[in-house]
Amino acid sequence: MAKTRVEIVQDNLLGWLASASTAVTPLPADAPLSPHTTLTVRRALQLFEDQVMSRLLDVAARELRKTNQSFYTISSAGHENNAIIGALLRPDDPCFLHYRSGGLVMARSRLAPAGDPILDGVRSFCASADDPISGGRHKVWGSKPLWIPPQTSTIASHLPKAYGLAYALRRAHRLGLKNGLASDSVVLCSFGDASANHATALAGINSARYAVRRGGDVPVVFLCEDNGIGISVETPANWIHDNYSALPHLNYCELAGTLDEMWDAAAAALDVCRCTRQPVFLHLHTVRLWGHAGTDVETSYRPVEEIEAVEARDPLLANARRLVELGAATPAALRKIIAGVQVRINAACAEVTRGPKLTRAAEIVRPLAPYDEPAIRATTHVQAAAKARVELFGEPLPEKITVPLKRTMCMHLNSALADEMLRFPEISLFGEDVGRKGGVYGVTQGLQKKFGPHRCFDTLLDETTILGLAQGAGLAGLLPIPEIQYLAYVHNALDQLRGEACSLQFFSNGQFANPMVVRVQGLAYQKGFGGHFHNDNSIGALRDIPGLLFAVPARGDDAALMLRGLVATARTCGRVAVFLEPIALYHERDLYADGDNQWLFDYPTPDRILLPGEAGVYHEKAKDVLIVTYGNGLRLSLRAARRLEEQGIKARVLDLRWLNPLPLEAIDKHAKACACVLVADECRATGGGIADAVIAALAESGYGRPLASVRALDTYIPLAAAANLVLLSEQQIVDAAAKLCATVKPAR
């Protein structure tokens, strides 16, 4: 039977070690490996062992896959020189790692011993419930003691958060946050040459350079592991060098050559990052052995001669030759290292394949959305001193302002943000135009002046960067409140929420968290201002994200209370939340008629909050029809209810407030008290809103009474008055409710 490529590569190394000469004088263990290097013989041999551990784990993964014991075979083979970086970093240098960073993890494990890296590696690719990082949920490089947050990305979507953490380090240190990081820690982020072309990678690198240009500290090391190919697509020769070697505000360093040459070059580059607090781009030349993954048939797109040429550049073979030629080890000593690692891996495989797996759905989802209501409510006891609030707001305090000076949602949100920033110094508010301008709609007006440019500041105009910064700040121990200027723009960066932020607690089994409250300005009904980018009414993509808290206020006092609830939940439970603020309601004052001022409300005292599940109820004694709605739909529904009463129909109105998770208990309770249910959903009909979910929940609960919905059309929103032709209207709610009630006997 013909040998596999895995066997050929292994035989190349072992065959050379079996035939190599040992005529060189042995070097002492503490001697430098070569003249003028800081790499000692002892450390070089440890590096070789770390690389062997990574290589043989990759072999084991493929062998176990043959018997369906392993479920991940994207290997680090050919990339093992990244172990040099792992050995040079400190345990308090956070690492966001590429999936081919096995050698780096093995070397880093020596710095802060936390379990057996071989055993843990086997547990990971075998989806063992004993895997110390993900608990069997996914194959990820990660470790809480080693400060390696697990990454699921294959498209460099972790670069923005690496930049974010590096940028946030100085602020976190000044606050004295206990995050295990030092004032001179650096952040390492590894990725491949193919993913370096992804827009997300470019955003992360660009944002780091931009921050330096603006005078900030960004001690991040971008480690590009360049093997020259992405699955089957070759990277053009010198592409990475030509693109990154001459960029301003980015220190470029090429890593190639012998083991000791790369060691010294990497050590110097890391020192530059640590001392200057500026980003470094490490370009590590590697090869990719054995194709992209275990299922990849490399010969379908690469000639055998080309594959053999790559295999001849195997870094383990090159390093073995270097060690033997310089007298750092004999071939027999290196064979002994390989054999010893193989024994450990065999024992680990035997143990893990007998070990436990995840067997209960409840256990799988347990870390996805932690929620501790008593602890959350306890945060209301943390209140700013009365004197500090007077200094912040002046007199009268916001809650003392009453008729005829009640205030709008915009003003309530501004006060609520100020109160939260006063209570919690770890809060930072940032986004496009939030600082000096005070927001496009004035929501953050004056906050930069009150709290300073380090707590309320403008970012570059890129939503991916904004959400990456938020993730990094959360990991550093801060509580970020980023703003996305319009709902339509959040889709530009959705993977930063879906694939990265909301997955972190899940894939780290609750060991890492990046809490944040993302303020998004959106929905429709803006007067005199339109177009689909500024009037977007599709929220389906947000409701689809597992673990994401999603809230939409409809009135000013609720907005303040809900914002506080989200801040408390994020701070206490590490949750990621989106707070969608209806733009059309920011400055709304009236409910039924111009000048009635019935949409102005008192500012709630700072000790009060609203939490998920707490819905708003209007006309609670009405039983003819329940109108379920949210956001702009609440005003429309209350106006419709008034007109329905003129027809003899009494409508109860339920403001959901919370769109993920939906307040199903409240929906069920009020639906059972009414003869029928109408969902008034301002978002798009097909998957754009919540009508489908509400109606399905009621139907599946056995509600058994008439159900209907009215929704916006499935279209982009046009300019000017034409928008009213496609959006949900008061008249539609009236007509649908009357039609629905005509089919049932009212429940009096």
Structure, described:
There is one protein chain. This protein is an alpha/beta fold. The protein folds into three domains: 347 residues, Rossmann fold, CATH 3.40.50; 196 residues, Thiamin diphosphate (ThDP)-binding fold, Pyr/PP domains (Rossmann fold), CATH 3.40.50.970; 126 residues, Rossmann fold, CATH 3.40.50. The protein is 39% helix and 12% strand. It is built from 27 helices and 19 strands. The strands form four sheets. It has a seven-stranded mixed sheet, sandwiched between helices. Strand 6, helix 9 and strand 7 form a beta-alpha-beta unit. Helix 2 runs antiparallel to helix 11 and helix 15 packs across helix 16. It is elongated and about 105 Å long. The mean pLDDT is 95.
Question: Short summary of the structure?
Answer:
With 748 residues, the protein is α/β, with parallel strands linked by helices. It folds into 3 domains: 15-361, 3-Layer(aba) Sandwich (Rossmann fold); 390-585, Rossmann fold, CATH 3.40.50.970; 616-741, Rossmann fold, CATH 3.40.50.
- The largest beta-sheet arranges its strands as 9-8-10-11-13-12-17
Question: What is the 3D shape?
Answer: elongated
- Stretches where pLDDT is under 50 for at least 5 consecutive residues are none
Instruction: Summarize the biggest pleated sheet.
Output: 7 strands, mixed
Indicate the proportion of strand residues: 5-15%
Structural class estimated from helices and strands = alpha/beta
- The CATH architecture designation of the largest domain is 3-Layer(aba) Sandwich
Q: Kindly state the mean pLDDT as a whole number? A: 95
CATH class of the largest domain: Alpha Beta
Indicate how many domains the architecture comprises: 3
DSSP summary: helix tally = 27
Query: Roughly how many Å is the radius of gyration?
Result: 30 Å
- Helix fraction by DSSP (H/I, runs of at least 4): 25-40%
